[in-house]
Amino acid sequence: WTSNQLQAGHTYYWYIRTINAFGASAFVEVPALCSMDTGELMGLIDDGIQKSDAFQNVKDGVDTNLEGIMENSLANHGTVEHQYQ
Fold it and tell me: Ranges for the Tip attachment protein J second Ig-like domain (predicted)?
């Protein structure tokens, strides 16, 4: 879930507990200070994306595609050189 329209520089308190088949825990107080600084957040997002399987699949596909393009270019260059001479 998310909380919207929070004020920057203000500390909010959430009271959280877990409930499962074994029962319910005691409430735990969790303070959160809202900030407008997204620099650290962007690093976390970037790290999460780059470590994901989906990103690795895309990256591997791009690497494979680049290798194929380079091989084709080299092969075509040899053909062009041979035809030109």
Answer: 1-45
